[in-house]
Input
Amino acid sequence: GESVGLHLPTLSVQEGDNSIINCAYSNSASDYFIWYKQESGKGPQFIIDIRSNMDKRQGQRVTVLLNKTVKHLSLQIAATQPGDSAVYFCAEIERAGGTSYGKLTFGQGTILTVHP
Amino acid sequence: DADVTQTPRNRITKTGKRIMLECSQTKGHDRMYWYRQDPGLGLRLIYYSFDVKDINKGEISDGYSVSRQAQAKFSLSLESAIPNQTALYFCATRRQGGHEQFFGPGTRLTVL
Output
């Protein structure tokens, strides 16, 4: 969904369905892109990352796709479960030089609700 | 055991009061960060530190100060709290050369 003002995009799915969460980024110099999951009352938790020289990376039940042409990132969750309900943030990080990384810039976030 | 801890977890205070939020980590990381999260927004960087003698401003440092007392400890202070500083505050750590940040559980601060 599209965000309007301060309202987070929301995605509602049924248990067992696949979920796709989208993110647009702005910095062409970003070197890594990271997806974080934030459950209510907790800090963001790392899910999966992808380097800028890749277009796809798979983890356990999750896949991240990167389209640098249109500066778009997506997180696909297979067989979504109620425990996947959370806010999902994409984040980008720029290489600051050598092996050093610059600051992490977060996107707005998407609320995923999984119905049993 | 939690690797990144924050105290207090919740705090309600009044306008004009001085508040300190503490962060401790057992990960051995040299980089530490303070973020603020408001409803409907992602996390925004307040301050960060690459080691005990290094302090850097983030995008929203006005009204905040920090102290890096040791490699494992990074505290955030609000010298004179105001209501628009009501937010969730997160501490994070990162090892040198790594790109992943590890977050604490957050502190919910309410300024009346």
About this structure: The mean pLDDT of chain B is 93.
